[in-house]
Amino acid sequence: MAQALVRFLAAQRTEIDGKETPLFAGVWAIFGHGNVSGLGEALAEVESSLPTYRAHNEQAMAHAAIAFAKATRRRRMMACTSSIGPGATNMVTAAALAHVNRLPVLLLPGDVYASRRPDPVLQQIEHFGDGTVSANDCFRPVSRHFDRMTRPEQIMPALNRAMGVLTDPAECGPVTLSLCQDVQAEAFDFPAAFFAPRRWQFRRQRPDSNELAEAARLIAASKKPLLIAGGGVPYSLAEAALAAFAERHAVPLAVTQAGKGAIAEDHPQCVGGIGVTGTDAANALAAEADLVLAVGTRLQDFTTASRTLFAHPHRRFIGLNVQPFDAVKHMGIPLVADARTGLEELSQLLGDWRAPEAWEKSSRREKRKWQTALQTALQPANEAMPSDAEVIGAVWRGCANDAVVVGAAGGLPGELHKLWQVRAPGTYHLEYGYSCMGYEIAGALGVKMADPSRHVVVMVGDGSYLMMNSEIASSVMLGLPLTIVLLDNKGFGCIDRLQQACGGRSFNNLLETAAHRALPRIDFAAHARSLGADARKMASLAELQTAVETARKAETTTVLVIETDPAKTSGVGGAWWDVAVPEVSSRAEVAAARSTYEAAIKRQRLGD
């Protein structure tokens, strides 16, 4: 069965820029007893047509595969295989990340024996009340589609269904096919047609005429419309259509974390990131908007400031989304369609309509004010330790226009969302749907695999680095150099700030406030060098900027370490976020924070 599976994957094709190419760019694999004899042997036979890549951590390799799919805008993808037990469950976190972000990845964990002859096999979980359960059932809630292969012929309908999900714009997400290890080795007389090359076309759903007419009517009647671009824009290759719509109709355009990078920040209509980590310009306009056209976004709490941002008493949402589940959020008027097609047909129906001149002037005024605040935040303050914002400024100045910045968790995504100035589409890669610590370096490897010509710059905190750094070695081994900027604030600085903002004392987040007999003195540069990277500690922001510039042409991965202030933030942009504060506490600071919290939740619009 395993040979049939890999031959099928190798036969799947897609088209990129008019050229046919393999849909699956390869398979990430960490072998164990649950997959080495079956799938491992099969992969070795097709290495020339379906490359296999060895990683150092199962979660990390799945992150790399997911990032590859994101970087290729879901036009290509990868598969990942592990053994049973811990190797398999290591991929569950990555599956959840792909599920949240609507990204395709095919997960092929080994499983227990279907025959049950050696029960319990090594690493098998035994459920006392259900003999059909294995560790791989953990994948069920975080997979768009899950199946378990207990007979070799089952792989035919299972793979066909898997491909339907992986390539569906609305249903796209992780697929898990759990492979019983004895079944991997079993033979079956598969029909030759199963291995015939197949080219997958990506569907562009046109909008319903009634929904389109209603959306156009609402927009034309609005006085203060606002566009929000989410991840569905790049997945639809709709960047040009988005810019054209904003220009033609004079509508200000804000971006989510997933949508940032769809348009350059210096575009006249772009007002930057929106929401909890957004710009003052975008958030000021959102507070006044009477009509919000949400394109390809899930409208999660960071975008809506936990349902407090859009304050106009009569504002309406139009959800232009390929997924009906998202299109109707916030009592939205659904416009279920592909983002590019929907924007083009909506613009055609609107004709020469433009937003009122007063609203356009307001948008440009807010953007000018924000640009002034932005430049101040990015400049060095010449203090003992820089803030994240000052480091971002130095890194940005050291990057070329086509460099791709990668990040995921902690305080950095918040500062990057509002402060990083995207110079060209496709150069901002943040995983903030699941905000998964450890994604950064592994994800950057996937981004680099998608386009080895790009300079890929990772921004990661010491907390995330310590959670997952093994793929530095993989990047060196594969000859895919990354530039990793490691900001060392001696702990989880972002959560320490949140803890204190909620009235708590600094506790168990920074190393110095956690239980300890001696504080660890971690030499991150030495550690990175031990993994094969060229690494050094930066003494200043100026040195960092120069080092980033130099790293553009480096032939191996470069790690640049700089110490930062865990307490200092940019102090600009942002909006309220609902983090519940205890009603009862012995701390006066918590009581004060609770009072502020109770005032804030009164602004939430829970009915929509």
**Helix proportion:** 25-40%
Shape descriptor: globular
Cα end-to-end separation: 50 Å
Q: Segments where pLDDT lies below 50 for 5+ residues?
A: none
Radius of gyration, in Å, reads 25 Å
- The CATH architecture of the largest domain can be given as 3-Layer(aba) Sandwich
CATH topology of the largest domain: Rossmann fold
Chain oligomer state: single chain
Strand order of the largest sheet: 4-3-5-6-8-7
Domains counted in the coordinates: how many?
A: 4
SS-derived structural category: alpha/beta
Largest sheet: 6 strands, parallel
CATH top level assignment of the largest domain: Alpha Beta
List the helices and strands and how they pair.
Layout: H1 2-11, E1 12-16, E2 19-22, E3 24-29, H2 36-45, E4 52-54, H3 58-71, E5 77-82, H4 86-89, H5 92-101, E6 105-111, E7 145-149, H6 155-166, E8 174-180, H7 181-184, E9 198-199, H8 209-221, E10 225-229, H9 232-235, H10 239-249, E11 253-255, E12 270-273, H11 280-288, E13 291-295, H12 301-304, E14 316-321, H13 324-327, E15 333-336, H14 339-350, H15 357-378, H16 388-398, E16 404-407, H17 412-419, E17 428-430, H18 439-450, E18 456-461, H19 462-467, H20 471-478, E19 483-488, H21 493-501, H22 524-530, E20 534-537, H23 541-551, E21 558-563, H24 588-601
Parallel strand pairs: 1-9, 3-4, 3-5, 5-6, 6-8, 7-8, 10-11, 10-13, 11-12, 13-14, 14-15, 16-17, 16-18, 18-19, 19-21, 20-21
Antiparallel strand pairs: 1-2
